[in-house]
Amino acid sequence: MAWLGSKVRTCWWLGGNGHEAVDFYVSLLPDSRIEGGHGPEGGPPLVLEFTLAGTPMMLLNAPGGPPHSHAASFSVLTDAQAETDRLWNAILANGGKEVACGWITDRWGISWQICPRRLPEMLASDDRAAGARAFEAMRQMVKLDHAALEAAYAGKDTA
Fold first, then answer.
1. Tens digit of each residue's pLDDT (9 = 90 or more) over 112-134
2. Which CATH fold would you assign to the domain 67-159?
3. What is the Cα gyration radius of the chain?
């Protein structure tokens, strides 16, 4: 129970179908697993403990929670377009909705940003013009395209 050693973990509140969501979440990313759950005798777990890509998480599995918004989200850094595509397509195929700029909302209302690992580096570059080109390219996308972002950053015309 290594997750008990973590001082801080994020807690998500889902309206009574949390085990289904956690099963889906841990299927998406390596180093993810359900650690345990507890709640009233004979009922579904009220609290689910899980690890998502090595990060300890907790889910409150009870009706009546607040609606979710982009104010809190999962942000996943991907190393290749294939990984971005796999995650994006899995969330979309499981009832998700595309948003913009690499954002997608899963069927439980949780927002995800599926983002190339290199994008934050581009945006924070000392070459402000290159960073601005990458930012503007990102703003035109729904699912992020690694090659198009790199081309924009480098100042190459992809049209």
1. 999 999 999 999 999 999 999 99
2. 2,3-Dihydroxybiphenyl 1,2-Dioxygenase; domain 1 (3.10.180)
3. 18
Instruction: Name the fold adopted by 8-64.
Output: 2,3-Dihydroxybiphenyl 1,2-Dioxygenase; domain 1 (3.10.180)
Number of Cβ atoms within 10 Å of the Cβ of 11? 10
Show the tokens assigned to 47: 């609290």
* pTM of the model as a whole: 0.90
The alpha helices in 10-127, defined as continuous H runs, are 18-28, 81-93, 119-123
Residue 119 buriedness (CB in 10 A; 0-12 / 13-18 / 19+): buried
Alpha helix segments (H runs only) across the chain: 18-28, 81-93, 119-123, 128-139, 146-154
